[in-house]
Structure formats: structure tokens, C-alpha cells
Amino acid sequence: MVDDLAARFEHTVASEARIEPRDWMPDGYRRTLIRQIAQHAHSEIIGMQPEGNWISRAPSLRRKAILLAKVQDEAGHGLYLYAATETLGADRGELTEKLIDGKQKYSSIFNYPTLTFADMGVIGWLVDGAAICNQVPLCRTSYGPYARAMIRICKEESFHQRQGYELLMTMMRGTQAQRDMVQDAVDRWWWPSLMMFGPPDEESSNTEQSMAWRIKRNTNDELRQKYVDMSMPQAAKLGVTFPDPELKWNPERGHHDFGQPDWEEFWQVVGGHGPCNSQRVAHRRKAHEDGAWVREAAAAHAAKARRSQEGVA
Amino acid sequence: MSFDNAYEALIDQEDAHWAFGTGFSAPLEGVDREVPTSVDAKDLVAYCLMLGDDSLILSQRLAAWCSRAPELEEDIALANIALDLLGQARLLLTRAGEVEGEGRDEDALAYLRDEREFRNVHLAEIDCGPGPGGDFATTIVRLLVFSSWKVAQFSRLRGSADPVLAAVAAKGLKELAYHRDHAAQWAVRLGDGTEESHRRMVAAVDRVWPFVDELFHANAVESRLAGVAVDPSELRSEVDGVLDAVFEAAGLTRPGPIPTAFVAGQAGRDGVHTEAMGFLVAEMQHLHRSLPGAVW
Amino acid sequence: MSTSWPLWEVFVRGKRGLNHVHVGSLHAPDAEMAVRNARDVYTRRNEGVSIWVVPAEAITASSPDEKDPFFEPSGDKVYRHPTFYAIPEDVPHL
């Protein structure tokens, strides 16, 4: 019986059809998906903080509106993704507890600080750009609810990336101080953005099975190369440089050669020792704990209302 | 959908209208922007600043909840309300600048006026949380009072002799009614929910109420602008009626008016603020002011 | 500690003449808050004219076959849309 189910599952995945919530699926597939989607959801929610840091100080009302709308979108993305995990039997509240207890991870990029307003532009351009490279293939990931959430998210991300690039273009047309600010932000975010694709393929443990299950569609190194190739002409157009002396076009490969990020730093940040790890988690924990009485009150009111309705009926 | 190139895949959508819609219309497109001849331009500028600053400053306060709300759904809701208010503020400050005729745009007015030139009521500026200044209950009570008052004000402002103010009011009224509804829904849940939530709501009402009386006090500018401005003293019974209904459903008692002394007869509408305002303005303006001549 | 609100499924009518379509889910303490949250979460780009919310536990399903939602662009918060940002045509892939 399980063999039949397993065969049907394998066939569905291999034929590029979608697995849906009530389909039979291997336990490992379910576990891997919950972990991957939750980690993605946590990243969206923690990712609100570095940009949220500048909402109150945004230098024009238009930029303030854009930034607030963008950070709000990230809450929405987290929400869609948590909902996708819930179709697999997870619970948002429990996942949040795992996040604030440090039992589940989120993208390390958000453990870097946002030091100037140019960071808002560079996060949109490079960080969201890298996220788009990672995420667009997931729009056809094998699990239906995840794929659908990703389609919606990718559409909204394209707004994020464009607003970032447009902010940087505007700043580059401004004063020298603004141009310096942009280059400084690019210098700080370039290497962390390359790290967003994960460790080199030969060190990445989860890739093979996830590729077979069509949960993951490209290897880390493939996506990193694609991202570098796409970013180079955009940087040239903007008038900024990337802080990598090895970065140059290789006509034989038809791709750019580039240097390796500092993987030791990467593992340090992943291990909880980045510049902002404890701050980010403490912020999320405080919001969750401060909100407990509100969630309890609303649940209590709903229970009272139900009881009084049943009493009448 | 092509997946060879991540960006092409975003553009190559069958439902291309989704994210790439065109034909956006400016919110006040087609509205007559002439200043009515019967109006004193200086007074109209001051009145636009009063209304615009109310929205701007409360938006600034509400945006502080972003990433700090009790649940994700509420984070999104509060951001929506802050965005609505910011949108109103931009239209109103733009109107103030164009009537003034000295080339000041929304950003010059938001970022380059000093604290004493802001004309918002104190209720908009007080710190109601997140953080030590308040909590979610205080934020909800302030929003309930503010939006109930604004709904009453904007519903009358739709008939203003200034066509721009009338148009801003017509657009903003729908938003404000939603804000009021959102706050009322929460007030009922928190007032009725648990002992703790009830206690916090009672404390929130105590905290907010001293700032309510100012809302119904007519400033000289408002009095001179008959036909253009709304007389705030007319709004009290309508607002009280709304608040009574919500408070009753929430199991709370609405305090009577708490008359609060002004400073030598002056309050927010005259540019005399609470101590919290200076910090709010400093934070909001810091970056804009520290890079003169920058473009954003 | 974890007092999760119940899960609701959200259905949006994209425009007049169309059926309500499932767009996702959310948490809310009760139906009134659920429909308001749905407005804020799923129609903040004006993607709908009517919203239904249904307690997830009230749904009886035969097959999980579902279609993607249909959305309309917003007429107001124009900064939410990529085309609001003028990017020169010769910037690749943006």
C-alpha cells in the first residue's frame, strides 16, 4: 500500500505536477519542507527589522511610504509562508517559539546592521535581487502551497528590487556625500549577498535529496554564478564597483569569475555570532511576548461570544 | 514562465496586469486647485498644516509598531493605517505649500520646520507605545479617539469651500472610517477579553483622556475660516456618541471631559507641544537635515 | 504560552462577474477580525471587491485541486507596483 502511494508520489513529482496538502508524502519530504519553508518565513519576519530601522528617519515622505509598504510586504510574505507550513501540519505559534528559542534558523544576511539610508537601496537591489534568484525557481517547487506562496512573493519582490535600484540611482545623481554613501553600502553588502546562496555545493549537505524531490531546483553555486552575472552590468550602469579584485568577465566560460566570500565569517554568523544575531532574536521575542496578553484577550472574547451564542441557540 | 533568467521569469507572466498595472491616477486628479477668492491664504495654509500634521505625526507614531505588533495580521493592519495617514499628510502638506506660494513642497514642510511650527494636536504626538510610553491598549484607545474625531471632522470637511480640502476629506473619510472600525473592534475585544486586558484598557483611557479636550477647542484660524474649516466645537456630541457605543460594548466607562490647561492659552494648534514632540521631530528630520542639498 | 488563534481560509472576488477564489489563509480570533485581516493581508493592492472567510476546520474536502488566485492592480498605492520606479531601459534584468 505504502509502495503504491510512494510510487504515485514519485511519479507526481517526476512529472512536474504538484503535491497538494492531503496527498500522501514521505515523512522526510514533509519534515524537509516544514524546515525549509519555516526558515524562509522566519527570514521574512526577521528581515523586517534591518529595514524597519530606517522607517522613522526616512529622508522624504515618499521614501517613508515606500519603505513602510515594503516592510509590511515582508510581514505578508512571512504570513503566506507560515500558512504554507500549516498545510503540512505545523503551527505558526510553535514555529515562532522555535525561532525565538534559537532552534530554527533564518537567513544570515539579516544579522548585518543597516548603517545608512543607502542600505535601504542596496538591500532592495542586492539582497532582494539575490532572494529573487533563489526564489523564482521555487515558484515551480513540487509542493503546491509553497509554489503558490512563492509566486505571490516573487511578484511583490520585483517591486522591492526596483525601488531599491531606483533609490540608488537617485542618490548617485545627488551629492558626492550620497554617492560615497552608496558605494560604502555596496562594499558592506556585496559579500553577505553572495553568502545568501549558501555554502559551496561540495559543502552543502541537503542539496541532493532536495533536488530529487524538486523542493530545490538549482544548486547554490549555479544560482550564485547567475546572480553575479546579472549584477555586474547593473553595477556598471549605476556607477558603483564590487569589492572583489578577482571579479572579471571570462570569455571562455561565458561567465564572470569571482572571489569567494569569507566562509569563516559566514559560519560564525550562522552559528549565532554575527553582528546583530542576538539583537534580532531579542526584538522578535519581545514583540511575541509583549503581544501574548493581546492574543489571549482576543481568544477569550471570542470564546465568550461563542458561549453566549450557543446559550441563546 | 521562463526560468533561465530569474528576472525574465518575473516579467513573463500571463497575468501581467498583476504587478505591472498601468494607468495609475493621482489621488486628486481633476480637482480644481485655485484658492477660493474669499479665503485668507495665510489662514488656509495654517489650517492645511494643522490637518496635515495631525496625520503625519500619528502616522510616525503608528509606524513604530512595524515588526512589533502582537500578531503578524495586526502588524500589517497597523502599517496600512499608518500608510493611509501618511498619504493624507502628503496631500495636505502639498496643499499648504502651494497655497503659500513660496516653493515649499511636502518634504520642506515635513523636514525643515522646527518643532514649534508643527500644528498637530497633542493626541497625535504622545507616545502610546510600543515601548515604555504605552502598550497596544493605549495605542488602540488613542486611535479610537483620534479616528472618531477625524471621521466627524472629515465628513464635514467634504463640504469645504476649498476644493482640495473637500477632495482630500472625501478620500480620507473612507480610510478613517476603517481605522475607527479597526480600533473599535479591538477596544471591544480588549475591554471584554481578560482581566489583564481590561485593566490595561482602563489604564489606557486614563492615559489618553487628558488629551481629548483639546480636540474640541477651536483655534482662531479655524474660527476665521468659516465655510472652509470645520469648527471643532461642533464635533463633540457626535464623537461622544460613537465612543459611548464602543465603550458600552467594551464594558468600559467613558470619562467626562478632563479640561487641561493650555500654556498661556496655547496648545498644539499654536505650536506649543508636549515634551515628547521634540524627540519625535528630531528623529524624523535628522537624516534629511544632515545632508543639505541631497536628493531622495 | 502559545495561544494561537484559529486558522481561516480566505476567498476573494477579484472583480464583479467573477467567482470568489481561494487566495490563502490567516489567523484571527473570530470571523469579524478574520474578514478585516483578510482585507489588510490579501487585498492591500486592491485585488478584490468582496471577501469570504471560512474557518479552516469547517471545510470538507474531496480533492486538493486548487487554482491560483486572480488579482487586479491597485489604483492608489502606486509605490507598491514595480512600474512606479523609473529604471532606464538599458539596465538589464530589472
TrEMBL record, chain A:
Signal peptide: none annotated. It is an enzyme of class 1 (oxidoreductase). GO terms for biological process: phenylacetate catabolic process. Gene3D superfamilies: 1.20.1260.10. Transmembrane segments: none annotated. It comes from the Bacteria. The keyword Zinc does not apply. It holds the Pfam family PaaA_PaaC. This is 1,2-phenylacetyl-CoA epoxidase subunit A. One of its GO terms (cellular component) is cytosol.
Automatic annotation (TrEMBL), chain B:
Keywords: Oxidoreductase. The keyword Cell membrane does not apply. InterPro entries: Aromatic_CoA_ox/epox, Ferritin-like, Ferritin-like_SF, PaaA_PaaC, PaaC. GO terms for cellular component: cytosol. GO terms for biological process: phenylacetate catabolic process. GO terms for molecular function: phenylacetyl-CoA 1,2-epoxidase activity. Gene3D superfamilies: 1.20.1260.10. It comes from the Bacteria. Its EC number is 1.14.13.149. This is Phenylacetate-CoA oxygenase subunit PaaC. It comes from Umezawaea endophytica. The gene is paaC.
UniProtKB/TrEMBL annotation, chain C:
InterPro entries: PaaB (IPR009359), PaaB_sf (IPR038693). Gene3D superfamilies: Phenylacetic acid degradation B (3.10.20.520). This is 1,2-phenylacetyl-CoA epoxidase subunit B. It comes from Umezawaea endophytica.
